[in-house]
Every structure is written in C-alpha cells, then in structure tokens.
Amino acid sequence: MTVIKSNKSTDLFLDHVVSHTDFSALRAKGLEFLKEKGLPALKEEEYKFTAISKKLEQSISRFSTAENIPLTQEQIKPHIFEGFNGDLVVFNNGVFDPSVSSVSKKGYTFETLSENQPELLGKIAKTEKDPFVALNNVFFEDGIYIKVGKNQKIEQPILFLYFNQANKGEVITPRLLIEIEDGAEVKFLENTISLDEESYFSNPVTEIKVGQNAHVHYCRFQNENRKSISVNNFEVDIHKDATFTSVVISMAGDLVRNNLSLNLLDTGCEGNMYGLYLLNGKTHVDNHTNVDHTKPHCQSNELYKGVLADSSRGIFNGKIFVRQDAQKTNAFQQNNNILLSEDAIVNTKPQLEIWADDVKCSHGCTTGQLDEEALFYLQARGIGKENAKGLLLFAFAGEVLEYIAVDSFKDYCLHLVQERLGSNF
Amino acid sequence: MLSIKNLHASIEGTPILRGINLEVKPGEVHAIMGPNGSGKSTLASVLAGREEYEVTEGEVIFMGKNLLELSPEDRAREGVFLAFQYPVEIPGVSSTNFLRTAVNQVREYRGLEALDAVKFLSIMKEKMKLVEIDQKLLSRSLNEGFSGGEKKRNEIFQMAMLEPSLSILDETDSGLDIDALRIVSNGVNQLRSPEKATIVVTHYQRLLDYIVPDFVHVLYNGRIVKSGTKELAMELEEKGYDWIKEEADSTAV
Ligand SMILES: Nc1ncnc2c1ncn2[C@@H]1O[C@H](COP(=O)(O)OP(=O)(O)OP(=O)(O)O)[C@@H](O)[C@H]1O
Ligand SMILES: [Mg+2]
C-alpha cells in the first residue's frame, strides 16, 4: 500500500525508538517503512474515516513504552470469567507475565519470541501491509510464540488477558505468533482490561498459521477505557481444508481500529468473521476486514452488526478478494446497523474484487433505526418502552454472540451485552 | 368501562377520526364495521396508544382513568388489549420469553407477584388449548414466518395470557379458515365475562354469528354514522354500505 505520511506522529514515535538486539532484520524493515512512509495522514484512503495520527498526537503525551506494572492474582481473578478452566496467559502492558499466568503447555509449546526466535515472525503480517505492523516491529519488546502440535485437540480454551495501564510511557506493543500444526483444534479467547481511566495506545500484532485440516476459533472482547486508543492487526494464513473463525465484540474505547485479514491459501478452506460493535459516548470503532480467496473450493462468511448510540461512530470496510484461480468460491458478507441517536454515524463499505468467473458471492448492508412497529407491538403487550427496546436490540445483536464457540465465555459476553442494551430482566 | 367522547385524531396533519362517540359497558360486545379506510384500525391504534396518531380533540375514559395520558404499556397493564390487524414479525425474540416478560410486567403493575418458569408454563399450556395453538409455533421467534391465520391465533392466545378487561379485535377473522374462525371465536367467547368487554372490528357477518354483538356501529369517514343491534350487521351484509354512505353524506355539513 502507499501511505501518505503524517510526519508529526511518526516523528513522535521515532524519537522514542529503543535499540533491541534481536529480530534486527524485522525491526530495520519496520523502521525503514516508518521513515519513508510514516503513519497514515488524513488523506490516506485506508484510514479515511479514522484520523488515527491526529488522535495519537492529541491524546498521547508520552510516546515511550509503558513499563511493567505490579500485577497480583487478586487483581486478575475478577477478570477470569465464570466457568473458565483452561490455560491463562497474562500480558502485563503488552509483555507476557509468567508470575500471574498458568500455562500447562498440554498439547502445545509455549515460549517467548526471544527464546525461540521463530523464522515465521513477520511472514504472515507483513511490514508493508499496514504502518502499524511496521510500528509494532520497531517497538515490541518481547512476544509469545505458541505452537499447537500435530493433531492435538485442545479441549479447554486458552485465554489471553491483556492488562493495560500507562506507566511512565503510554505505548503498549504486544506481539503474538501462533502456529497450529496440521489436524489440530484449539480455541482462543481474548479480553483486554484497562486498569485505570487514563489514556494509552496499544498496538498489538497477532499472526496465526492454521495448518492443514486444523480448526481454530478466536474470540476477542474489546471493552477498554474511554480514553484508550488501539490499533489491532490480526492476520491469519489458512491452509488446505482448515477452518478459522474470528469473533470480535467491541464495546468501548476512545478509538479502536481492527485490521483483520484471512488468507485462504489452499483448497477446502473456510474463513469466518463475525463482529458486534455496541457503541455509545464518543467511541469510534473501525473494522477493516479482508479475506483473500486464492484457491478453488473455499468459503468465507462474514457478519458484522452494530448498535450505535450517542455520538459514537462505526466503520465497516469489508474486502473480499477472489483471485482468478479461486473458482467455486462461496463468499458471503453482511453488515447491519441500528442507529439509536441522530448524532451516531456509520460508514459501511463492501469492497469486492472478483477475478474468477465461477463464484457465489453476496453482500449486503443496512443502516436504520429501531423498528417502531415492533416496539409498539411489545409495548402494547405491557412491556415497558426501555425493556422493549432492549429486547429488540438484543434480538438484533444476539445473533453474533451465537458464534462464540465457548459457552461460558458466550455467557460472559451475553451478560455485558444485555447490561448495555438494557435487556437484562 | 370505556367512554369515548368527540374523539378527533390525525396522522401527519391529515384528520382521520372526526368526532367518535362510543360507550362500552362491562359485559358488552360491540362490533365496528365500515368500509375500507374509514378509520377502524386508526381508532383501535389510538386506543392502544400508537404515537404516530395525534389526538386533536376529545377524551377517552377507561375505568375512570384518562386513557390518552397513559403510555401504551400502561394501557395494556390497565387492561386494554389490541389484537392487531397485522401482527408484527419480530425475529430473534422468542415467543415464550416475550410472553413471560409481558405477563410479569403486567402482573407487577397490578401488584401481583411474578410467575416462575413452572407456573408460567402451566398457565401457558392451559391457554394454548383454548385457541388450539401448536407448541411448535411458540418455540419460534415471535410471529416470524407465521401464516396469516397463525398470527391471528397467536393474538388471541396472547389475549388469553394477559387477561385484559377490554379487548379490541381488529379484523381477527380475516385470514382465518372456517375451522380456525370457529376455534378463535370459541376462545374469545370463553374469555367473556360480565366484567369484561369486547370491541370487534370486522367486515363480515360470519364472525358475528359466533361472537354475537350487543351493538353494531358503522364507521364511515372517521365518524360513527349508524348504530344498531346485530340485525344491522345482517342488513349491511345484504345491502352493502352505499345506502349508509348516502345517508351520511347527505346529512354531513
Ligand atoms: N401515515 C398515514 N398518512 C396518511 N394517511 C394515513 C396514514 N395511515 C393511515 N392513513 C389513512 O387513514 C385512513 C384510515 O385508515 P384505517 O387503517 O384506520 O382504515 P380501516 O377502517 O381500518 O380500513 P380497513 O378496513 O381497510 O382495515 C385511510 O384512508 C388510510 O389511508
Ligand atoms: Mg383496518
């Protein structure tokens, strides 16, 4: 991509580059990219509705890396949802914290990136793909590398908990590389917790390789504080006959940008992307998704739904790329939004690029208000107006939650969603 | 029980109801007939509290309360029930969950304790028999994909569950087959009592053979232009509305 450079924010970061000894090639590449192209400026097409550089300049005052915070088991416990009994991986301002994690390593290997120095790092989420990948390359301190062994079927989910809080610096840079070997099955859950109400910027990059006939589920819950800014780059390579399902629930934050890319690299792949954004206040959530069909007989399904109150803003940009080789592709995309206020805004844009001729592809988007007829019907049966609204909104939003594959986590999300929508009665 | 005086209502500035007067006493059944577009559903909607309609004149007293001041939900809780001419489909809202919420909110308003799941289910089973509604239907989303007749049956089922004192049935008979018409009418009749009243909006004498009205009113151009007993319905069936329209148009100012 070509990036129109925004000098100021780029320089603010570049002023705080610390030299690292490992991954020098990757870091050099990131630095080069940033120096040459920089972070996206206002006119940059990929960040058209999300003035990220300006936001960073206005909200972040210390562009250095946030330092470790003391984390205790007691602090962590309330954030482990009921019914969870899998492995727990805790990130302390973006860096793995073994003192509060519990990693059984049953069926998988678990190392820090510095311990393993995996070749694959940076090969899935490529530097030139997004300036924030480049930024992550330069700034991450250490990350984790998980490798799920061949044919391993891991029953219990693996939970990633990110605890964030500005501490001296305000920049948090997690880095994950996950390799799922052939025939393995695993579910990942992710939740990010802000420890206070102060601003910070988190910029995680997650790279996943899903081997042949492996099946992976990955659910993220985004409910950070009202001043937090995050840009999440998440990219997955999916190999022959494998499936990958992503669910992203966004509920809060100042500005959240999610770049999600699924690369269907061989025949028989399935890639699923589900998203729900329930926004209020001034929260701005931008979901940019991209599915790349490269080979025949693959399928992708996408459903993103939004409920927007107050002066919140939602952006959905869904790219479907079907290459010439990818005959017999099935690709579905849907984005539906309900606006609850006159000041809420949604920008939705499907972007289809289809080079194969034997393809089934459909997309649709709707943006509207709450159905007044339905609301009156419920009220006419004695249900209070606010409850009736809640019921209708939950009926709308609940469809996405159904895709969460871990029931206990689904219940956790359900509860928070109901609370937000006023339908928990 | 219900007293409507000189009720005027308009939608988007267009007057639809132009001076309705109607007295309904406990135990009575009133039939409202009239040509298409005469304002029957509008009257029903205004009574149920639909906000799109603006009441420009007149008053409605229900059991001593000014009905027009109440929210739609409070009217329902006070005991007004409208069986819709066109029930809305609501995907994603389960019929059972919806009904339980409705029943319990109505009960709460009336100072009764909420029904637990078991109690609710047993009452539901009992009322389902009344209108011979299939359990399978109720395990689906509210009205979603229901046939026309199934929707109407579901309206009467909801009425049975909510135990209103005034029921307004807006063309509940249209779309029902012969058997369903009999079943639904039976249901309505079984729910009748000396304390309860019913207003049936219909185009057909057929329904009135089952639900025998005490009074029949003809609504035309937003006014009740003729009232009578059940014989009036038979006369209308025979002669149509032209004679009434002529009468009304010649006396209109
Ligand atoms: N939003 C609106 N704007 C303007 N006119 C409207 C609107 N809604 C309803 N009307 C008009 O109000 C009049 C009364 O409608 P209503 O539905 O009450 O008739 P009805 O007597 O129930 O007819 P039917 O027998 O066909 O059910 C009709 O002429 C209708 O076109
Ligand atoms: Mg009507």
- What count of helical segments of chain B does DSSP give? 10
Number of strands of chain B: 12
| The CATH superfamily title of chain B | P-loop containing nucleotide triphosphate hydrolases
Query: How many structural domains are formed by the residues of chain B?
Result: 1
Query: What is CATH's topology name of chain B?
Result: Rossmann fold
**Oligomer kind:** heterodimer
Q: Biggest chain pair contact, residues each?
A: A-B, 23 and 30 residues
Given helix and strand content, the structural type of chain B is alpha/beta
**Low-pLDDT segments, ≥5 res of chain B:** none
Tell me what portion of residues of chain A adopts beta-strand conformation: 35-45%
Q: What is the helix fraction of residues of chain B, given as a range?
A: 40-55%
Number of domains of chain A: 2
Main β-sheet description of chain B = 6 strands, mixed
Mean pLDDT of chain A: 95
Order of helices and strands of chain B: EEEHEEHEEHHHEHEHEHEEHH
Q: What structural class should be given to the helix and strand makeup of chain A?
A: alpha/beta
Cα shape of chain B: globular
Rg of Cα set of chain A: 21 Å
- Report the β-strand fraction of chain B as a percent range: 25-35%
Unreliable segments of chain A (pLDDT under 50, ≥5 consecutive)? Answer: none
Description:
The complex is a heterodimer of chains A (425) and B (253). Helices cover 20% and strands 39% of the residues of chain A. Chain A has helices spanning 7-14, 24-36, 52-59, 73-76, 113-116, 131-139, 372-379, 385-401, 407-421; strands at 5-6, 39-40, 87-92, 95-96, 108-112, 144-148, 158-164, 171-172, 175-180, 185-194, 201-202, 205-210, 215-223, 229-238, 243-252, 255-264, 270-279, 284-293, 299-308, 313-322, 329-339, 345-354, 359-368. In chain A, strands 5, 6, 8, 9, 11, 12, 14, 16, 18, 20 and 22 form an eleven-stranded mixed β-sheet that branches. Chain A has a ten-stranded mixed β-sheet with strand order 4-3-7-10-13-15-17-19-21-23, with helices on one face. Chain A has a two-stranded antiparallel sheet with strand order 1-2. Chain A starts with a strand and ends with a helix. Chain B has 253 residues and is of the alpha/beta class. Chain B is 42% helix and 28% strand. Chain B has ten helices and twelve strands. Chain B has helices spanning 40-48, 72-78, 95-109, 117-131, 135-138, 148-162, 178-191, 205-210, 230-239, 242-251, and strands at 2-11, 14-24, 29-33, 53-62, 65-66, 80-83, 90-94, 141-142, 166-170, 197-201, 215-220, 223-228. Chain B has a six-stranded mixed β-sheet with strand order 6-9-10-3-11-12, with helices on both faces. Chain B has a four-stranded antiparallel β-sheet with strand order 2-1-4-5. The model of chain B has no long low-confidence stretch (mean pLDDT 92). The interface between A and B is medium-sized, with 23 and 30 residues. The complex binds adenosine-5'-triphosphate and magnesium ion. Residues 40-41, 85, 170-171 of chain B line the site of magnesium ion (MG). Chain A: Residues 22-158 form the SUF system FeS cluster assembly SufBD N-terminal domain. Chain A: Pfam families: SUFBD_core, SufBD_N. Chain A: Residues 166-396 form the SUF system FeS cluster assembly SufBD core domain.
